[in-house]
């Protein structure tokens, strides 16, 4: 089925062999299977295969699964009982343990054994590669689906649309959708969700409207995706219409926590925190997404005390925050200039919740320290970050240098920005302003000469100091 994916010879991958000291308790209750002895005893092979299938399903870790799969290979049970069911079970099991490569290796072995995929095989493989999607493998799987007449299967079709969208191949995703003879709600949802998550919010809304024109009623998945797209557009009018649609659409019961959380997020992005809070307040159940949407909304619009009070309420409700929650909390601290609180929450994230800070978290802290004049501490944080700072973080620090007229720090930051964006004239503009604020007119003249040589013109009102 996928023999073109790998150039390996027909051999058992090394990682599937069992070492001499392996624990065989999982299979010790099985009578050793003899292919010659049981070749004509269908009941014995069927029963033996069912027991193995149950053990595969009940595996608690990937080491146990490797043991059982190696035992299956040694005993050749699947050569006798060669239907796709047992292969599918193994593929799903490796997918459950997030082992994409091993799931693919099993599917290749299945193809080499001459077993054709069925309507359960490809969805299982698509789920496996969704953890780390590669365009080449995805297109090979698409070819396999076409060859075996599976591309129009409900789960295969939506799977291909989702994965093509995930890797940015929206043309291929739309082609799968357009060529479908019977588009069901799952197909429409896959397209709308893919466009919404892929930054094509306007197109996602247009597909939703097309679906409505064709007489299809949305479900909860549809509404979450299109409400999210509406939030990205900041279209308040459309958002209100979608809110009404939740109560008018046939087949939709009481909105669930995910749908209501998307409404909170949408109203927040549209700047209507009063409506966001009204939806939040009336929710009978609130999850981490609900709380985070409200916190981020308050932080984005500068409602510092509301954001931090909401975070305290979240902790009191015993809801565990995630990395996005802390981006909202730290952003609120930036807006309020709350250095001590920012340090406190940054350390809480690392020490109490064991969340490794990402670029956005470091960016918030650098921005906070820079705005409050703690440039040396901000510099130290940039130097000690486990990842390279991006242009946004350097821009925040450059803006702080301009605000406080720090020449030395500004020159250090400017070097990094020039390396990252040699075409950007903002560096020279800001450095000229820093020199001017310190009365260093020779250096101001030097900046202007550089800009003239590069045929750059100062942009009126332009500043490189941008927030995260």
Any overview of this molecule?
It is a single chain. This protein has 26 helices and no strands. By secondary structure, the protein is mainly α. The chain is globular and about 85 Å long.
Task: For this entry, give a set of tags.
about 475 residues; mainly alpha; globular; disordered C terminus
Rounded to the nearest angstrom, the distance between the terminal CA atoms is 47 Å
Q: What is the 3D form?
A: globular
- Given helix and strand content, the structural type is mainly alpha
Low-confidence stretches: 2-43, 458-468
Q: How much is the average pLDDT?
A: 84
Strand content: under 5%
Counting DSSP E segments of at least 2 residues, the number of strands comes to: 0
Biggest beta-sheet profile:
none
SSE topology string: HHHHHHHHHHHHHHHHHHHHHHHHHH
How much helix is in the residues? 55-70%
| Count of alpha and pi helical runs | 26
Radius of gyration: 29 Å
SSE diagram, text form:
Elements: H1 35-38, H2 42-57, H3 62-75, H4 77-80, H5 84-96, H6 100-112, H7 121-129, H8 135-147, H9 154-166, H10 170-178, H11 185-197, H12 201-213, H13 220-233, H14 236-248, H15 257-269, H16 273-281, H17 288-300, H18 304-316, H19 323-336, H20 339-351, H21 359-371, H22 375-384, H23 391-404, H24 407-420, H25 426-437, H26 441-453
Helix pairs in contact: 2-5, 5-6, 5-7, 6-7, 7-9, 8-9, 9-10, 9-11, 10-11, 11-12, 11-13, 12-13, 13-14, 13-15, 15-16, 15-17, 16-17, 17-18, 17-19, 18-19, 19-20, 19-21, 20-21, 21-22, 21-23, 22-23, 23-24, 23-25, 24-25, 25-26
């Amino acid at each position: 089925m996928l023999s073109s994916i790998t150039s390996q010879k027909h051999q058992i991958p090394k990682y599937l062999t069992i070492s001499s000291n392996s624990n065989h308790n999982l299979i010790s209750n099985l009578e050793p299977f003899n292919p010659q002895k049981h070749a004509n005893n269908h009941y014995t092979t069927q029963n033996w295969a069912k027991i193995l299938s149950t053990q595969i399903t009940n595996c608690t870790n990937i080491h146990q699964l490797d043991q059982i799969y190696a035992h299956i290979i040694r005993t050749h049970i699947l050569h006798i009982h060669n239907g796709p069911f047992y292969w599918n079970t193994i593929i799903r099991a490796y997918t459950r343990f997030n082992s994409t490569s091993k799931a693919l290796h099993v599917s290749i072995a299945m193809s080499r054994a001459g077993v054709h995929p069925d309507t359960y095989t490809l969805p299982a493989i698509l789920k496996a590669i969704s953890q780390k999607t590669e365009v080449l493998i995805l297109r090979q799987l698409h070819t396999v689906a076409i060859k075996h007449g599976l591309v129009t299967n409900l789960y295969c079709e939506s799977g291909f649309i989702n994965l093509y969208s995930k890797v940015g191949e929206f043309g291929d995703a739309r082609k799968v959708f357009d060529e479908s003879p019977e588009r069901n709600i799952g197909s429409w949802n896959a397209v709308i969700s893919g466009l919404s998550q892929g930054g094509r919010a306007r197109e996602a809304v247009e597909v939703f409207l097309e679906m409505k024109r064709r007489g299809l009623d949305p479900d909860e998945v549809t509404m979450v995706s299109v409400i999210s797209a509406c939030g990205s557009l900041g279209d308040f009018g459309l958002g209100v219409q979608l809110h009404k649609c939740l109560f008018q659409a046939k087949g939709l019961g009481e909105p669930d926590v995910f749908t209501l959380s998307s409404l909170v997020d949408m109203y927040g992005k549209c700047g209507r925190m009063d409506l966001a809070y009204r939806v939040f307040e009336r929710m009978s159940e609130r999850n981490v997404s609900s709380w985070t949407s409200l916190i981020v909304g308050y932080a984005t619009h500068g409602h510092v005390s509301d954001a931090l009070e909401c975070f305290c309420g979240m902790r009191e409700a015993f809801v565990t925050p995630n990395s996005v929650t802390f981006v909202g909390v730290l952003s609120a601290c930036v807006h309020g200039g709350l250095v001590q609180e920012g340090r406190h929450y940054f350390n809480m994230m690392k020490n109490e919740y064991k969340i490794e800070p990402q670029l956005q978290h470091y960016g918030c802290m650098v921005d906070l320290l820079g705005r409050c004049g703690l440039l040396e501490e901000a510099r130290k944080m940039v130097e000690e970050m486990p990842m390279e700072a991006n242009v946004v973080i350097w821009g925040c620090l450059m803006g702080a240098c301009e605000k406080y007229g720090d020449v030395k720090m500004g020159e250090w930051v400017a070097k990094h920005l020039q390396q990252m964006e040699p075409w950007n004239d903002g560096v020279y503009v800001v450095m000229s302003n820093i020199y001017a604020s310190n009365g260093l007119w020779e250096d101001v003249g030097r900046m202007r000469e550089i800009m003239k040589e590069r045929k750059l013109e100062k942009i009126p009102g332009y500043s490189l100091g941008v927030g995260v």
